[in-house]
Amino acid sequence: MKVAIYCGSAEGNSPDYVNGVKALGEYLARQGVDVVYGGGKVGLMGVIANSALKAGGKVIGVIPTHLESKEIAHTGLTELHVVANMHERKAKMSELADAFVALPGGVGTLEEMFEIWTWGQLGLHDKPCAFYNINGFYDPLFTMVESMQKAGFVKQSYIDMIINVNTPETLVSAFKNYQAPLAKWS
Description:
By secondary structure, the protein is α/β, with parallel strands linked by helices. The protein is 45% helix and 17% strand.
């Protein structure tokens, strides 16, 4: 299994984020789950890559040329794909991955996760999507999504397709047991 990971290019203000991401990277490696991520060496991106590599895992990075040229590309990965732009990065990560997870991060993390979640709703893929909810980081997001459902903009089945977990074991288990809903327009 290959899991695409979206996460921050910063480490955040709590050591819990770094510690939680390290534990996840180590667990994924021990389970034989490969990491596909944005290819950077900074922030939580670097933490997930380094922890998985240190534990003997495979890590595949996908980075656009404009970020590689700023010298933030991780040079010690199992594979590093350099692509033309962010659109190609997201497409390549989607192609390589069997599942997707958002760790704590900023606007870019949300944008990537929302796009892949939308693709799942539209039936463009049937792969699981998850939020790795360290210390309730994503709780306000889930409150907002519930408001969207109550207002009639999101069907409950599309909320139910999102996995909300905070331990490595429950994440991998949820991925293995995932059943995709019917596509939105089917």
